């Protein structure tokens, strides 16, 4: 039962530790949030490997997002994501109305300017989890009123993600028209 | 007996590949490489096949006259490929499944190791040799001749010639595996042995 509080306290200390080292010049100013996010990334990769060990294979991206919202969030924060929205074109918004890492801080607008520091690790966590499941993404967070917050994930459809797919159409830059590839194994970046 | 075990990353390069050095290793590397196509086929055919639709264990990928190749894919698209001797007919599907489960557990531990960067090769100092099926006295694991430890050079009359053995119950044999990658190696070796 105490493990929830342990992670919360450790996380708070981590954030203040990174910022203290920034003051002392070990870390460049402005890179603290990146550092926290990268920490979350690596942790997310390992966590997702452990959590998906026993689950069945995922069918598609939506399946993966649902897993993140339900099982992953429950295991890490002991509750599920309250609301998942998507535009079915690669943008997902996860809304948590009572985010565990912010509940101790305030119940409204107080300390709003500091909230982003405490969300960086979780953004990295989601990004790391998605990256290990094969989805490259950018995850950002926004808070309008604590402790509710929204995590927005933008999936990137890059050619490196699905090397097995054959891209049959390329945009020919010369005449600006779509031309069919004759050799389907060649993937060109325009 | 498992003659070759490979862990392939999702970009299809090997993270860890181990085979019996008595045979031509390149042959096994090639077999694992060709089995990747079959793995990809099975993953993409997932939507159409009603059986094994969301299972991680892929089953027998393809048989050759001497060997059988089994596959397993994790949710992070890391593939495990195992090449097994065909002559060992006592090997059942359940045993292969349990071997893959153990491999998956070990791989998860490697992933959570903070000193391991995802995407790097899984390093190990010991090039462990698998034991042939008919060695008397149960499970042993082997250490290479270059090992720092004084090995008991016991030769066993098993097919494939004499090996250097050190019993798994010995104290200094257990001292050989303090860190993560060695644990991974030991797990793989014990898997190769357990199949006997």
What does this structure look like?
- The complex is a heterodimer of chains A (190) and B (196).
- Helices cover 40% and strands 17% of the residues of chain A.
- Chain A is an alpha+beta fold.
- Chain A has a single domain (4-155), classed as 2-Layer Sandwich (Muramoyl-pentapeptide Carboxypeptidase, domain 2).
- In chain A, the strands form two sheets. In chain A, strands 1-2-4-3 form a four-stranded antiparallel beta sheet, with helices on one face. Chain A has a two-stranded antiparallel sheet with strand order 5-6.
- Chain A is globular.
- With 196 residues, chain B is of the alpha+beta class.
- Chain B has helices at 25-44, 93-112, 171-174, 180-194; strands at residues 2-8, 14-19, 57-63, 67-73, 79-85, 140-141, 166-167.
- In chain B, the strands form two sheets. In chain B, strands 2-1-5-4-3 form a five-stranded antiparallel beta sheet, sandwiched between helices.
- In chain B, a hairpin with a 5-residue loop joins β4 (67-73) and β5 (79-85).
- The radius of gyration of chain B is 17 Å and the shape is globular.
- Residues 125-180 of chain B have low confidence and may be disordered.
- Chain A binds chain B through residues 42, 45-46, 48-50, 52-53, 55-59, 132-134, 163-164, and chain B through 10-12, 40, 43-44, 46-47, 53-56, 73-77, 104-105, 107-108, 111-112, 114, 118.
